[in-house]
Amino acid sequence: MDKEYGICRISLAPMRNLPDHSSEQVSQLLFGEHYTVEECSTDGAWIKIITGYDKYDGWIQKKQHHHITMEYFEQLVNSDYKICTDVFSSILFNKHRLNILIGSILPITVNEIFKMEEQFAFNSESKSLNQRMDGEFVKQISLKYLNAPYLWGGKSPFGIDCSGFTQMVFRISGYLIPRDSTQQAEHGEMVIDVAQAKCGDLAFFADDQNIIDHVGIILSEGNIIHASGYVRIDKLTGVGIINSETGSLTHRLHSIRCILI
Q1: Residue 113: φ, ψ to 5°
Q2: SS3 labels along 233-251
Q3: pLDDT tens across 212-231, in order?
Q4: Which domain holds residue 218?
Q5: In 10 A of CB 190, how many CB atoms?
Q6: What is the pLDDT of residue 137?
Q7: What is the CATH number of the domain that holds 67?
Q8: Residue 139 and residue 113 share a domain
Q9: pLDDT value for 114
């Protein structure tokens, strides 16, 4: 059987651990994210996919699958398209209005494949997907998610988890990092301590067994922005995160990594 390819053509699609609506959400697809299809559930209602961007796997509803050709898929892999930088905007897609979210991939190109297969119009803020930005840009993008509610497996300003937050901010800023915090902690260069950290560095935190279970983005003046209950700004010390409201230690610092180059 030939490999099948797909792309998300709705605003947001949940990826689940198992082919069932009650199964844990492990991640999400945003508009424009492409993937390969690995298998189909026995009842035909779900497909298991692997995302083209970060090779993350999960199950999506077959009804939310949009088939594309291998040629189209390879064009997506090899082209530098645009990524939406507005928290919320709309596009005209195949003559229908569709709401999209920050981090959505926009097929703005002169490529003939898109002209043949899809009609598309967009008039909001975006940047080139692969254009790498500095720490100040990372900060400004992270602030667009401020107060977004925590949601396990979430990747949007209407629900996001700690590593989904860091991954999305860095993707918009032009950097590829993995989906989970334990994987993210293996990227970039080690920073010795908080005093040497710069705006845009990633700080990782561990549980009592020293297993990484949380991540946030360091801002200036000893602050950190992270998703804990909601995306918030707290104080960062050499020990860990100090809740800005209660003054209590909430997360124990494990390490700091510099991703930006």
Answers
A1: -60, -45
A2: EEEECCCEEECCCCCCEEE
A3: 999 999 998 899 999 999 99
A4: 135-258
A5: 9
A6: 98
A7: 2.30.30.40
A8: no
A9: 47
Q: What is the pLDDT of residue 109?
A: 60
Number of domains in the chain: 2
Which regions of 103-211 does DSSP assign to beta strands (E)?
105-106, 120-122, 126-128, 155-156, 159-160, 189-191, 202-206
Question: Helix, strand or coil for residue 34?
Answer: strand
Of 128, 160, 191, the one marking the end of a domain is 128
Kindly state the average pLDDT of the residues 126-153: 97
Chosen domain end from 77, 95, 128: 128
Closest of 252, 227, 108, 107 to residue 167, by C-alpha: 227
Residue for token digits 């008039």?
123
Higher pLDDT, 13 or 124: 13
Is 204 found in the same domain as 162? yes
Assess whether 27 and 104 both reside in one domain: yes
pLDDT tens digit string along 77-92? 888 889 999 999 999 8
First to last CA, the chain: 42
Task: State residue 238's pLDDT score.
Answer: 96
Strand order in the sheet with 25-30: 25-30, 12-16, 57-61, 46-51, 34-40, 4-7, 67-68
Question: Do 63 and 93 have their domain in common?
Answer: yes
